[in-house]
Design a protein that fits this description.
This protein has about 650 residues and is an all-beta fold. The protein contains 2 helices and 48 strands. The longest helix has 6 residues.
Length: about 650
């Protein structure tokens, strides 16, 4: 008897026998796609089909090789060579483009790609045009929400004497993939150590001019490893030209290249430079974040029940609070509060409220003081332990719906009352004072250690104390998950960002001290929206104290607060400051990224991702240049269309 089996398998990415990436297809499907069979997959039922395309083609597969006509030989034509890339399915958000082999004509003497250029259009964010030698490089490109295809174009001039060729691997990345790069990251590295090169980097030049491509502004992002708290950047050993980004490199003796004598940083870095926020060299903090010249000193940067079954997802109760959809019996067993219906009325939206000495493993919990909504009159320590509700949870968002403790002491430290968050993979500073409507994000550790919130109270200090803290667990695949290293994360095109304990009123501490909490270093991130290319930061126009971060605020004429007369930036910002990378004020590029003092002039940056770095030092009352009566900041941001 003869028989025939229908074998089905997923068209997943696979590794071919030649090391190339392919897609697992039947042999017939591979042949119909014009692919190259390269080894077996799906337990030998399929073949690893390597898809290779050239000029004037399209692709909608999860891995495609875009090569020049005649590859592996050199390209002998001119004009334009295009490929259009569409999503292979609705779950795709990004492309990773690897330049396995890439040689075009060099930029001109001013660094512009005028003869040949590679360009990417149709993506959610701008990608620079590149040329020259870029084998081994990569870029990440986001699709726009309307599924517009992304176009890759190689434009070749008529100049002879150039051995042009390209072999570009285009891999599609799912929205829920752990390999997806953060929005705004042009290059993304996930290893604990590696090498990062600028486009067209090489230790030789073919003519007077530069290999460095002009008019670029992009971010290179490295994913923090669990248990690693800083990153160290250094020049490549054995290559004296491995950091030559500005100045007359040819005029420098080769023996001097890469030495500290010719390393440059700070305000003189106005044209070509890199930014490493809040850096240290030789264990000494620097008062600048820009580096240029012909050397980089080693630099460190400190980032159901019954027959009816339904999912226990988050829901909104009738009182506006968030809960978890449970059966009524389950909600009662959990000592929750039923607040409306869910799951087509089969379940109840169960609002979970916990207080001191409790634990939770639910996707939304409210941690309140005993007696809430009344004031807390107790003392000592009040804790809650938060465990993951399932294995797909990566992050905890902590919203301070109500939060009042005693404020910091005159030196800015939370020593009497404070909230401490421990056990997570990311650091959270001690928080005290008034922080209603603030929020922070904390990553769970790789071993799923519970995150603990502890509120400590000093009964010797008289103060009104109250808290209602919403604890929301965020899935690893959730688009609302904050990028690693972001303590605060905002997702709107506009909004308001405040420092901890900000208020226009002065601290009542004696001597008059600061509302601003000392010894912090954190990132405030804003999710980039497709079609928006820059972000603008401004003070709250109705609050003259909305940027008072350093100096003697009490000694400033109130009529001058918030004006350019008391705005400070650059090398004078050494104690408390914010960092806005590569900024513009009044359409003029600045030579610094740090801002402090008692005013912030309207500031715009095109640098991506959009991050505001906040730094405060370890004391506010210095014998000289004391930081007195600082409130902190309350800034408005607005993303600007391209």
């Amino acid at each position: 008897f003869s028989f025939f089996n229908v074998i089905r398998f997923k068209n997943n990415q696979c590794d071919g026998t030649g090391g190339q990436k392919g897609i697992c297809y039947s042999r017939k499907e591979c042949a119909s796609l014009g692919g190259i069979a390269s080894g077996n997959c799906a337990r030998n039922w399929g073949t690893c089909c390597v898809i290779q395309k050239t000029c004037g083609t399209t692709a909608n597969l999860n891995c495609t090789y875009f090569v020049n006509a005649g590859f592996p030989g050199v390209f002998s034509g001119d004009g334009r060579c295009n490929i259009g890339v569409s999503k292979c399915n609705s779950g795709i958000c990004q492309l990773r483009i690897d330049f396995l082999d890439f040689v075009l004509a060099q930029p001109n003497g001013e660094g512009y790609c005028t003869t040949d250029q590679f360009e990417i259009t149709g993506s959610a964010y701008d990608v620079p045009n590149i040329c020259g030698e870029n084998s081994g490089q990569h870029v990440y490109v986001d699709f726009v929400d309307n599924n517009t295809p992304i176009q890759l174009s190689v434009r070749v001039g008529s100049t002879t004497g150039v051995s042009r060729r390209w072999n570009i691997r285009i891999c599609q990345i799912g929205c829920d993939s752990s390999e997806r790069a953060p929005a705004g990251a042009l290059m993304y590295y996930r290893e604990l150590r590696g090498t990062v090169k600028s486009f067209n980097y090489g230790s030789t030049v073919t003519a007077i001019g530069t290999r460095q491509i002009a008019n670029l502004n992009y971010a290179v992002v490295v994913r923090p490893g669990i248990g690693y708290c800083s990153i160290q950047w250094s020049q490549q050993t054995g290559d004296p030209y491995s950091f030559t980004v500005s100045g007359d490199t040819d005029a420098v003796a080769v023996t001097d290249l890469g030495t500290s004598d010719i390393a440059e940083n700070g305000a003189i870095c106005t044209k070509d430079f890199i930014v490493i926020p809040n850096p240290q060299q030789n264990q000494i903090p620097l008062n600048t974040d820009r580096f240029c010249g012909n050397a980089l000193i080693q630099t460190t940067f400190f980032p159901f029940f019954g027959l009816i079954r339904f999912k226990n997802v988050q829901c909104t109760g009738t009182n506006g609070q968030y809960g978890t959809c449970f059966s009524r019996q389950q909600c009662s067993n959990l000592a929750g509060i039923s607040s409306g219906s869910c799951a087509r009325n089969w379940g109840t939206c169960c609002v979970i409220q916990r207080t001191c000495g409790s634990s939770t493993n639910l996707n939304c919990t409210y941690f309140t003081n005993p007696g809430f909504p009344g004031m807390y009159t107790g003392s000592g320590q009040c804790n809650i332990m938060v465990s993951k509700c399932n294995s797909n949870i990566c992050q905890l968002r902590i919203d301070f719906l109500a939060f009042t403790l005693s404020g910091p002491n005159p030196t800015g430290f939370c020593v009497n009352d404070y909230l401490a968050v421990t056990g997570g993979a990311s650091l959270v500073p001690r928080i005290c004072g008034e922080n209603a409507d603030e929020h922070v994000y904390v990553d769970f550790s790789a071993d799923s250690t519970p995150i603990q919130l502890s509120i400590r109270i000093n009964p010797a200090v008289s103060a009104n104390r109250i808290w209602n803290i919403k604890l929301t667990q965020i899935e690893c695949t959730n688009p609302q998950r904050a990028p690693t290293g972001c303590l605060m994360y905002y997702t709107g095109t506009e909004g308001t960002v405040k420092s901890f304990n900000y208020s226009p009123s002065v601290s009542a501490a004696s001597p008059i001290g600061t509302r601003q909490i000392a010894n912090t270093n954190y990132g405030v991130c804003v999710q980039m929206v497709a079609g928006y290319c820059s972000i603008e930061w401004t003070q709250n126009p109705s609050d003259p104290y909305s940027f008072t971060v350093s100096g003697n605020t009490g000694g400033v004429d109130p009529s001058l607060l918030g004006t350019a007369y008391v705005a400070e930036s650059g090398a004078v910002c050494t104690t408390d400051f914010i960092v806005i990378p590569n900024p513009y004020q009044n359409s003029t590029s600045l030579n610094t990224d740090r801002f402090c003092g008692n005013a912030l002039v309207q500031t715009t940056t095109f640098s991506k991702p959009f991050v505001l770095t906040v730094v405060t030092d370890n004391t506010e009352l210095r014998p000289i240049n004391a930081d007195i009566a600082n409130r902190g900041f309350c800034l408005n941001y607005e993303q600007l269309p391209c």
